Amino acid sequence: KRELGKDKSIEELYKIVNEDKKISKIQYELNRYANRNKYDFFIHKDLKGFLTRELDFYIKNEFINVDDLTSFESDTHTQRINLNFKEIRTFKSIANTIIDFVSQLEDFQKKLWEKKKFVINTEYVITFDKLAEYTSKDFTDEIIKAVLAKKEQIQEWRSLFGKDILPDKIKAEHLKAGEGYIKLPVDTKHFSSDFKWKLACEISKNNNIENIQDGLIIYSDNYQGLNLLNDKYYGRIKCIHIDPPYNTATSGFLYKNNYKHSSWLAMMDSRLEISLGLMSENSSYLCHIDENEYESLYHIFDKTGLPNAGTVIWDKRNPMNAGFGVALQHEYIIWRTNNDSPIYLRNDSIQAMLAKADELIKKEKGVNDKVRKEYADWVNNNEELSGGEKAYRHIDDKGHVYRGVSLRAPEPRLDKKFFEPLIHPITKKPCAVPPNGFSRTPTTLKNMRDRGEIIFGEDETTQPQQKKDLTEETKRQISSVIQDAKKGKTDIAAMGLDFPYCHPTSLYEKILGAVTENEEEIILDYFPGSGTTFHAVQILNQDGCNRRCVLIEQEAYVETIILPRIKKVSYSFNWKDKKPEDMDGNGVFIKYQRLEQYEDALENIAFDSTNTEQIQLEF
User: Fold this and answer.
1) Three-class SS of residue 284?
2) What is the C-alpha to C-alpha distance for residues 198 and 439, in angstroms, rounded to an integer?
3) Considering only CA atoms, which of 117, 142, 122 is closest in space to residue 210?
4) pLDDT at residue 22, as a whole number
5) 64-73 tens-digit pLDDT
6) 281 vs 239: CA distance, rounded Å
7) What is the DSSP code string of 228-269?
8) Span 428-475, pLDDT tens digits
9) What does the pLDDT look like over 360-375, one tens digit per residue?
10) 43 burial class (0-12, 13-18, 19+ CB within 10 angstroms)?
11) Sign of the four-CA dihedral 191, 197, 201, 203
12) What secondary structure letter does DSSP report for 181?
């Protein structure tokens, strides 16, 4: 101001200051915008307290000489001490002024960050089968007519499902229940506000619109999104399942993936803290991570007080070769739960095995050697079955699927009664006895034999085993190692979508199916990436349950990846070469919202200032 003069305008000052830089006004503004938006927001909860403590520590270590406090040999020495105290008071006074100034700025940012954010926009996606279910026939016909007149919606369908999937001219009959294209999704973003609210009001007439939705997508920073959920979803989430950035410099990954260690921990700690209140009774918290931050994240979970159910090792069956050391082929799933009972896998495999046995028996009109061989071969060659499940490779004369289980005692028995042999039913000779003796008493073994629960070999040389039938109630506890070599990118590439990295849907089906099995259970994922959690939940819902999914994501791929994936899956679960192979999807009805963000709040602040103050802010 001294050099350029107070009477000059902002534009004149700008021209003088930038005369040698050869930079245009628009370039200057673009640079300011880019610089303002390329930083990460980690706002200190109590900056003044932290800096004050650091200041005191600094003064004690840099200003105070301990020997001066115990020695008063001369007036000169005393004067030096008094001078030292004056220096400390002066330094601390200046420092406190700086701390007050900086902390005011930080506290102001903290208020902006923590304030409840406005919902900027709300839209709905609903397929025609759901529309017909939740509204009257006349209203459905009215919506169909409006949709067919909307070119933007027709164009989206052709983009999502392929031009050759839809007829050249879609007719109203194609979109009615029982007809050919009822799983096509309508997105209210293509229509007027009147259309959207009319649709919502009509659905709400006979339904609780929140309860019938398949999910909610929140386009927001997850901290703000979790705050929004606390009002409606407090204590209602059955499973929180997240795959956060692993804090490694992974090339091409869309998340910020190279935070400083402490910043990453602060981010995770704050999200865990705010999400805990959402968890319902007997709920679970599942978090993917690798060895880079596993131990630190494990201790953060310890601090939450959530009981530790164990850590699952996901064996990807695909070693990642590196320039040094061991090739890694695993990741971890930290598993915390309020449920004090064992965690069982869904019995999909069991249902498939029982169905296969029933199919072969019906085909042959009874049990014979051909049925037993074909069933055993099918079990042995089925890569979807675990080793324990493959043990159920036998079928008895009544058509029951079973396996043999050893009756051997785990440690040597001392009582002679546990070494009493069983008599073979054919040879009438004593059968071989396990080296440690039997695990059951003779009385228990006799009762088991009378109930047909003992399997004998061809002769007495084979140790008898317990017969264990496979039933629909049979359960298998989830183990600490899950093997799944499938590629998540394969799942979405078939749909014509591209995302740098995503987990296989099959893995999510397995772990989410183990913690959600009832109607109306809600799964939350606030690091959803490409939307694999929602995809897996829709597949799980083929069992007739109505699990719902809530996703929170701040990146633009909410609109370019997540929503298109949900729309595609609602139409069909089977895709090849970017085209649906059928129309076996569940249909969908979801709400998606965009929230005001910290940057929006910051950008919308208006300061009243004088010309002089404005010049100081600009330059």
Assistant:
1) strand
2) 69
3) 122
4) 61
5) 776 666 655 6
6) 10
7) HHHHHHTTTEEEEEE----SS--TT-SS-----HHHHHHHHH
8) 999 999 999 999 999 999 999 999 999 999 999 999 999 999 987 777
9) 999 999 999 999 999 9
10) middle
11) positive
12) T
Name the maximum alpha-carbon separation found in the chain. 118
| Residue 543 DSSP label | G
CA dist 217 and 566 (Å) reads 10
The string of DSSP codes covering 119-165 is EEEEEEEEEHHHHHHHS-HHHHHHHHHHHHT-HHHHHHHHHHH-TTT
What dihedral do alpha carbons 204, 126, 533, 355 form, nearest 10°? 100
Cβ contact 563:592 at 8 Å? yes
Residue 469 near residue 401 (C-beta atoms within 8 A):
yes
Length of the chain: 619
- Compute the distance between CA of residue 597 and CA of residue 37 in angstroms, rounded to an integer: 12
Q: Which amino acid is at 161?
A: F
User: Euclidean distance between the first and final Cα of the chain, in Å?
Assistant: 10
Instruction: For strands 308-320 and 215-219, give the pairing.
Output: unpaired
Radius of gyration of the chain (CA): 34
- Would you say 219 and 558 are in contact if contact means Cβ atoms under 8 Å apart? yes
- Helices 75-114 and 47-62 pack at an angle, to 10 degrees, of 160
Residues 373 and 393: their CA atoms lie apart, in Å, by 9
- Given the DSSP bridges, would you call strands 119-127 and 589-595 parallel, antiparallel or unpaired? antiparallel
Sign of the alpha-carbon torsion through 114, 115, 121, 123: positive
Place of tokens 């987990």: 503
3-class secondary structure, 403 = strand
